[in-house]
């Protein structure tokens, strides 16, 4: 859902701001656009955390998965993801100076990146240990309740998610830290256009993770591929019958 809102809301809002050329920090549209960007980005990374925890539960606690992951708990997690995504975005509303805005953006990026990465890394390491344990059980002819191929597949999937996450978010985090540290100093990047272009590029790269994650999960999970294929085939048949 967060990836959907990235394409539906965030990218059009940013394009409008660039076209209209709104640069005032206190402008209502600036406040709105930056609030939406922070909130949706937080929801995106927190959603990745939720998916990683789901895979972690499915692999490490496979025998109790259906009892732990219920429909009601999934709904609660979704609500918690969107409610918690407001936390890093709310401080943007009263920020009216360049220095306070940079502090807010840096704090938001730390919450959006560091916390989710810690959770995802923990899930990956746990899945990796489970995969290694299952291999030892196979070598010793010990019965394993979880298919080793499924464990290895989950480990590779989470590794791909971590790689995409780091490559997408590290550039904008480094740029934000650099800008905050050099606020009162002579910046090495004296060209403002270069800094703005790099910020735009790193921001688009971070938003690009919203495109990559659904592709990864679609390619890695056979059940999801079958559902999408059935939906696509049903849509084609409906168009043919309509014509």
Structure, described:
The protein has 243 residues and is mainly α. The chain has a single domain (1-241), classed as Rhopdopsin 7-helix transmembrane proteins (Up-down Bundle). The longest helix is centred in the middle third of the chain and has 42 residues, at 98-139. 81% of the residues lie in helices and 0% in strands.
Largest sheet at a glance? none
> How many strands appear in the DSSP assignment?
0
The CATH architecture comes to Up-down Bundle
N- to C-terminal distance: 32 Å
Order of helices and strands: HHHHHHHH
Integer tally of domains: 1
Radius of gyration: 21 Å
| CATH-derived topology | Rhopdopsin 7-helix transmembrane proteins
Helix content: over 70%
- The CATH class, by name, is Mainly Alpha
Which outline best applies?
A: globular
The CATH homologous superfamily name equals Rhodopsin 7-helix transmembrane proteins
Q: Give me the secondary-structure category.
A: mainly alpha
Low-confidence stretches: 184-189
Mean of all residue-level pLDDT scores? 74
Total helical segments: 8
Strand fraction equals under 5%
Domain G-protein coupled receptors family 1 profile: 1-217
Protein name: G-protein coupled receptors family 1 profile domain-containing protein
Transmembrane segments: 31-53, 74-93, 105-127, 154-178, 198-219
GO cellular component, one term: plasma membrane
